[in-house]
Amino acid sequence: MPPVRLAPREELAAAARVVPLLRAARELRTWITAHPDVAAKNRLEEADGLAAAEALELTADELDAAWQVVAASAAGADEDAPKPHAVPLARASAEAVLREWDAALAALLAGDELDGLATALYTVGAPVRIDALFDAYSAAAGPATRATSGRTQPSADEAAALSHALETLADLGVVELGTEDTTGGLTVALSPLGVWGVHRRLLDQGWHVPVLGAADRDGAVGLLTTLASCDAEDGEARIGEWLVGRSAEQAAVELIAAAGDGTPGLRGAAFAVLDRIGAPAAAEVRAALAEPLLRAHAAVWLHEHGEEAELGPADRAWLLVDLGAGLLEEADPRDVVAELLPDVAPDAQAEIVAGLWQVGHPAVIDLLTTLSEHHPDAGVARAARKAAFKARSAGARHGSPDS
Questions:
Q1: For residue 144, is it within any domain?
Q2: Which residue, 31, 50, 350, 368, is most buried by CB atoms nearer than 10 A?
């Protein structure tokens, strides 16, 4: 997925407060509440729909979209929980407004056609001509009719479906219409609100969806989080951008702080970026020897940069577990098993793994369990299984090794 820039949350909430579909859904809830017979049926029959549309001055399509939002929010709702629409949109907090808008988006995108259209626009990452958009929509919604010229042409039903889809997304503020500078043709693109909403959905589905500006906005943590979604070339560019305007010492301070508070994956990434800084970071890295979670990383880094630092077997074992835990954050367990000790013979691996139960690392049992379940060598898997049992029996404590 292409990197995107997310608007500030207050700006997003301000946009969500004025989208027509949220207003229509709230008004429909009020109308249904005033008609207990409709509320009891939990559906809108034709006569009810006509009455609601007339009372609320909605078209049939607008009423249908509003009903989708209302029905989705009602499904599985806790009757005792505060209703998200109880406070007027103008006075609701930014978080409350965005939660309500996001739930409405989820209701609309429950249909594959709208979901495919929104994802296609996100993937393109730029305004798309309406006639070109049909190709992407057809791929998600179904086959298209080929004209004799060889170009894809919509049938009347398909063109109407595309138009209806865009109107629905526009009513929720997901898309914006514009005109192309050169030809004046009509274009469509995700709005900042739409980018935010689709980004959340893709993130929940497990996609890597990088965010531009996150590193600058969130300091070292933002940089390290962004790097997880980058290839090597893009990551190098992000690091270079982040270092601009920071002294080597200041960058090292921020990276060490982020490593101390972060996950194993962030710790590994932080010391990788410290490699880019080099010798000017040595003083800050040496100070990190006093931090239990950073000691082993700092000692290895200092050795690799020609500095003296004590590095005992317990440090190496702790670092191995931390490395494995970091890999498990992103990679398939089978890939982690393959990458953890790639150049070590199985007998030697089994010996190393057998002793890991003594490592006081928060993730040691998870790593040993992964090795026991996925290692292709039976001897290593057996050693991991026994070590995991010993770690549980000993009540393995979170912490770091004694050097």
A1: yes
A2: 368
Domain extent at residue 279: 217-311
Q: Which residue has the tokens 């670092």?
A: 319
Last residue of a domain, one of 209, 227, 254: 209
Collect all residues with Cβ–Cβ distance below 8 Å to 248 and sequence separation of at least 6.
277, 278, 280, 281
| Residue 378: predicted pLDDT | 92
Mean pLDDT of the region 165-184: 87
Domain count, the chain: 3
Please, where are the H alpha helices in 6-45? 9-16, 20-33, 36-41
What pLDDT, on the 0 to 100 scale, is given for residue 397?
Answer: 43
The two counts, helices (H) then strands (E), for the chain are 21, 5
| Statement to judge: residues 7 and 136 lie in one domain | yes
Distance from C-alpha of 9 to C-alpha of 56, rounded to nearest angstrom:
30
91 to 88, 97, 324: CA distances (angstroms): 5, 9, 48
pLDDT of 82 over the 70 cut: no
Q: How many C-beta atoms surround the C-beta of residue 148 within 10 A?
A: 6
